[in-house]
Write a structure and sequence with these properties.
By secondary structure, this protein is mostly helical. The protein is flat, with a radius of gyration of 14 Å. Bound molecules: zinc ion. The site of zinc ion has 8 residues, from helix 1 and helix 3.
Amino acid sequence: MSECPDCSCSDFDKCLRILNLLLDDEADETQEEFFYSHIDKCIVCFSHYNAEKQIRELLKRKLQKRKVPSQLALDIRNKIVQ
Ligand SMILES: [Zn+2]
């Protein structure tokens, strides 16, 4: 989990940590600022951000309707992160 497969991002671990905080609404202002200015420049973290966001939305929908196959979130993650 600590190695980014194809990435030139030197802060990948930190970004991932903040990304998860953000999506859980637990990031503080400093972390938020850091992250959003970072994904302006860093396509790796930007695509992770989008992928994670979509996965969260899917999971939310799944919890509401219980109809989305659990494999789907994984498929989407693979498609986007590749
Ligand atoms: Zn990055």
